[in-house]
Amino acid sequence: MPRFFSEDIGETGAVIAGEDARHIARSLRMQMGEELTLCDMQGTDYRCVITQMEPEAVHLDVLDKAPSKSEAACRIRLYQALPKGDKLEFIVQKATELGAAEIVPIITARCISRPHVRTLEKKRERLQRIAYEAAKQSGRGLIPEILPTLSFSQAVHEMADSELPILFYEESSKPLRRILRGNPDGISIMVGCEGGFTAREVSEARDAGVYIASLGSRVLRCETAPICALSAILFYLGEF
Q1: Of 163, 160, 162, 174, which is closest to residue 204 (Cα–Cα)?
Q2: From the CB of residue 200, how many other CB atoms can be counted at a distance below 10 Å?
Q3: What is residue 108's three-state secondary structure?
C-alpha cells in the first residue's frame, strides 16, 4: 500500500498537498476510493481512503490508526564526523533506512570538511530532505531529525547524558557485544571521519563516561562504519 507523510491529519480526515499529491495523481494514478497509508511523522500510521482529488491536494477519510510497526523501541542517535564530499548524504540515507532517530554532524580534529556556518545550514536542509525521502521509501514511522553541527567536545558531553553512549575507535580492543546490555531506551553512537579520532579525543570521551568500542579487526570506511554499527545494535535489540 502506498505510504506518505503529512502533518495535516485530523481524527476523521486528512490532506496530502504539493509534490506528494501530484505523485499520487500523475505517477501512481490513484483514484477516489483507493486506500493508502499516511504517517504523522511521530510514529502513528493512519489507514486512509481517497475521497477527493484536486491538482495540488488529495483529501482522505481516516479509517483507523495504529502505532507504526517500523520504529525500534530504542531511539538511536548517530553523531557523525563530517566526511569529505557527499559521503554524509549517503550516511544519512542509509542511517534513516536502518532506523536512526536523529543524526548529528560533528567536527572533529581530523575533519577535512569544515564548511562555513551558513553553508552548514544549507547542507542541513538538503540532508533533511534526503532523510525525508529515505524515511518514506523505507516505511519509517518518523523522519529522523538532522540536528545542528556540533564540535567534538559539545557532542561528547551531550551524548554522555544518554543511557548508553558509545564511540567507535579502530584501536579499541573492546567488542561492541561487551558493551550492549539489557533493553536500553536510548543509545548514542559516534563515528569518525576518514582519519578517525585522535588519542586525545578518545581520552576526552572516555573521561566523560562514553564507552569506547571496536567494530572488529578490519578498518572500515567512514561511510561503512555507521551502517555496520547501527546494524549490529539493531540485531542485538532483536530488530532483525
Answers
A1: 160
A2: 10
A3: coil
Measure the CA–CA gap between 51 and 58, rounded to whole angstroms.
Answer: 8
SS3 content of the chain, % helix, strand, coil (to 5): 30, 30, 40
Residue found under cell 495523481: 25
- pTM comes to 0.89
Give the pLDDT confidence of 32-63 residue by residue, as tens digits.
999 999 998 888 999 999 999 998 899 999 99
Phi and psi dihedrals of 207, rounded to 5?
Answer: -65, -25
142: left (phi over 0), alpha (psi -120 to 50) or beta: beta
Look up cell 499520487; give the residue: 24
Q: Mean pLDDT lowest for which of 69-73, 151-155, 184-188? A: 69-73
Q: What domains can be seen in the chain, in order of their start residue?
A: 3-67 (2.40.240.20), 75-236 (3.40.1280.10)
Q: How far apart are CA 157 and CA 205, in angstroms?
A: 8
CB 136 within 8 A of CB 4: yes
